[in-house]
Amino acid sequence: MARRSLDRVVRHIRGLAHQPPGPKWSDAQLLDQYAAQRDEAAFAAIVQRHGQLVRAVCWHVLHQEEDIEDAVQATFLVLARKAVSIRKRVSLASWLHGVALRIALNARKATLRRRAFEKRSANRTPEQPVAEAALHELQALLDKEVQRLPEKFRAPFVLCCLEGLSKGAAARELGWKEGTVSGRVAQARERLRQRLALRGVTLSAVLCATALSADRSSATLSATSMGTVLASAAGKSSQLSAKAATLAESMLHRLWLGQLKWALAPVLLVTVLAVGMGLTFQKPAKIADGQIQPSPTAAGQNRQEEQPRTDRYGDPLPPRALARMGTVRFRHGDKVEVLALSPNGRTLAAASRDETVRLWDVATGKEVRRFPDHKGSLRFIAFSPDGTLLASGVSPSGIVHLSNVTSGKEVRQLQSPVPWLGHVAFSPDGNIVAAAGDRPSHRALGDRHGPSEFAWR
């Protein structure tokens, strides 16, 4: 007995599985059935439900019957091709409304371009009456504003206000609560009322005109046209018009670009964030004297290419120094014993206890040249009359150094018999150098009146 009851239950379940799609099936179920098994009955049920809506939208935009038929076929052809990839399957009516509107607008643009290049002929189709053309524009305006609504408002408004479903039926279709559908329809009507008011149109008038003209656009796809659409979607030879095929391919390309945009959006976001983080961690540029100086990171990481850091006068700073108080110009480093100015007044010579003679540029204060290796106390320096030679004497060695001012090289050393030299001078022609100093015996006896003079040619 239990075995027979179980067999009846199994047969009943199998019978339900093989039942053709009925009115209780939702749009999502019908779409899944067609996408999975290419069930023509499921596709026919979708066309029967929403064919009037699609044709009405195309009728609002287009004026010729053949153009309307092509746009309707193209809309359902796009549905057949994109059945698998439609994301919001519960909002199929809203999706069809948007696709039909864009296809119809593209068809109208193509028609207007074609007519602009056509020659006028006697058998040309007469223009529509002004009242009928105005009605079409009014209804097309409503369709455009509906597409501007967010999806959560657009889906219930299309079902309830454009397809005439009750709020309970729309709630079952969308899987929402009836109160949610009622509230969102009210919000959608209010948004549309405000937008249409800006164009000088009332929402009630547009909806009334749409209802009055519903019988003129109530025809839907015939069995022949539906078979043509299904055959074309399956890749079989069909009698689909060239215009409908072109409209469908154009719409499929736009949908593909939209999906590609959403697919590439995360990659673009990650790239922008990576670049932004790199710029954030980069050291900012410094602004000095009205000019932008790049940071060390921006200037390059190669230490050899970095410019040495300087103080406010342009003199180099030590490696770890941040700034210099004052200046190093005319700063010898130790006590200066004697000074001498060149004949042209441009160079200053200074002799110091650090056993060096340094030349300074009088105009800038920068050190020009340095003469080291003066072992002892520097007691005198003197320039030759032409300024090319510099004589410097050292005590107690008694050596007089003659150096070339331009090259910095020592030209000659003159050894004095008197170790403690105190003065040196050049002859007016620069050929003779004279020096004066104290003898050792005189210094030991404290006699300051016994100097000795020497001269060298």
Outline:
The chain is α+β, with helices and mostly antiparallel strands and 457 residues long. The protein has helices at 2-17, 27-37, 40-61, 65-81, 92-117, 130-147, 151-162, 167-174, 178-198, 203-212, 223-233, 242-281, 296-299, 440-445; strands at 286-288, 291-293, 336-341, 347-352, 357-361, 367-371, 377-383, 389-395, 399-404, 410-415, 420-426, 433-438, 451-456.
Give an overview of the whole structure:
With 457 residues, the chain is of the alpha+beta class. It has helices at residues 2-17, 27-37, 40-61, 65-81, 92-117, 130-147, 151-162, 167-174, 178-198, 203-212, 223-233, 242-281, 296-299, 440-445, and strands at 286-288, 291-293, 336-341, 347-352, 357-361, 367-371, 377-383, 389-395, 399-404, 410-415, 420-426, 433-438, 451-456. A 4-stranded antiparallel β-sheet has the order 3-4-5-6, with no helix packed on it. The longest helix has 40 residues, at 242-281. The protein is rod-shaped, with a radius of gyration of 51 Å.
